[in-house]
């Protein structure tokens, strides 16, 4: 498990927005309501919950510093 700042990846950021799987799920109306990630994939939900609490985004950090 990573602790500290996340290393940004432009390639991953673009692919997450343009993925075929995301487009199909979004257009078919199969999105889960916010907070229901544990229903779809409990293992991933627990991992992401811990990861997001132990790491931080450097872009958000810069945004708060220069605001």
**Helix content bin:** 55-70%
For the biggest sheet, the summary is: 2 strands, parallel
Query: Uncertain segments of ≥5 residues (pLDDT<50)?
Result: none
What structural category arises from helix and sheet content? mainly alpha
- The gross shape turns out to be extended
As a whole number of angstroms, the C-alpha radius of gyration is 15 Å
Average pLDDT, rounded to a whole number, is: 86
List the helices and strands and how they pair.
Blueprint: E1 4-6, H1 10-18, H2 20-28, H3 37-40, H4 42-54, E2 55-57, H5 58-65
Parallel strand pairs: 1-2
Task: Provide a descriptive summary of the structure in words.
This protein is mainly alpha-helical and 67 residues long. Helices cover 64% and strands 9% of the residues. The chain has one domain. It has helices at 10-18, 20-28, 37-40, 42-54, 58-65, and strands spanning 4-6, 55-57. The chain has a two-stranded parallel ribbon. The longest helix has 13 residues, at 42-54. The chain is extended, with a radius of gyration of 15 Å. The model has no long low-confidence stretch (mean pLDDT 86).
Quick tags:
67 residues, mainly alpha, two-stranded parallel ribbon, 5 helices, 2 strands, extended
In summary, what is this structure?
The protein has 67 residues and is mainly alpha-helical.
